[in-house]
Amino acid sequence: MVQLFNADTGAPIGQISEAQLSFLVAQMEEEHAQDQDYYLNADLLETWREQGADPALIELLAKAMGDGEELSIRWSR
Fold first, then answer.
1. Domain containing residue 55
2. Total tally of structural domains belonging to the chain
3. With bands split at pLDDT 50, 70 and 90, how would you rate the model's confidence at 33?
4. Which SS3 state, helix, strand or coil, does residue 62 take?
5. Is 52 left (phi over 0), alpha (psi -120 to 50) or beta?
6. Which of 17, 31, 55, 63 is the most buried (most CB within 10 A)?
7. Residue 31 has pLDDT above 70, yes or no
């Protein structure tokens, strides 16, 4: 399993599957090959939801975002 963290605070967000990680990697722009940090916003999550992304992944990210409009995450195996 892959662990997600809030990149700003270091707080754990939760675990995701390899398939969910593959989705994130495919959707996000990476600055380099070892990039494990991503910036998300509420509009992006809504777009993914509309495109049929894994509901559990969207729910996890939306919960971590809370009432805010953006979230920086990082992942680790």
1. 2-76
2. 1
3. low
4. helix
5. left
6. 17
7. no
